[in-house]
């Protein structure tokens, strides 16, 4: 069973967020269901066998979004369809909301280092 998670910060709130998810649904030809005003589930049929990938989109306070992609695909093979689905959702959201930053991705060893906060040997550490 494949289970991949990512977290974005800097996401817009309110009607703009809901409208973006409706457009994401159309762009990826999925089936979007609102679980409540803040959280949604997107179902995608992927690959030649129409593997069902479920993408849960959960709003986090104040501007975060958790994205959880699951399927029956095996993780031993790297779950290529589930991984590709997560990638498509992330890419689409980051294009629509340019202030969104990827903070965590489970298939990339967890929290991501931000470029601006990494000190290099020839540069002083930020204060």
Written description of the protein model:
- The chain is α+β, with helices and mostly antiparallel strands and 127 residues long.
- Helix content is 24%, strand content 35%.
- It contains two helices and seven strands, in the order βαββββαββ.
- It has a seven-stranded antiparallel β-sheet with strand order 2-3-4-5-1-6-7, covered by helices on one side.
- The protein is globular, with a radius of gyration of 16 Å.
- The termini are far apart.
- Residues 115-127 have low confidence and may be disordered.
- Count of distinct strands: 7
Give the end-to-end Cα distance, rounded to a whole number of Å: 44 Å
Structural class: alpha+beta
Number of distinct helices: 2
Major β-sheet profile: 7 strands, antiparallel
Helical content class: 10-25%
Secondary-structure element string = EHEEEEHEE
Which strand-content bin applies to the residues?
Answer: 35-45%
Strand ordering within the main sheet: 2-3-4-5-1-6-7
Gist of the model:
Helices cover 24% and strands 35% of the residues. It has two helices and seven strands. A seven-stranded antiparallel β-sheet has the order 2-3-4-5-1-6-7, with helices on one face.
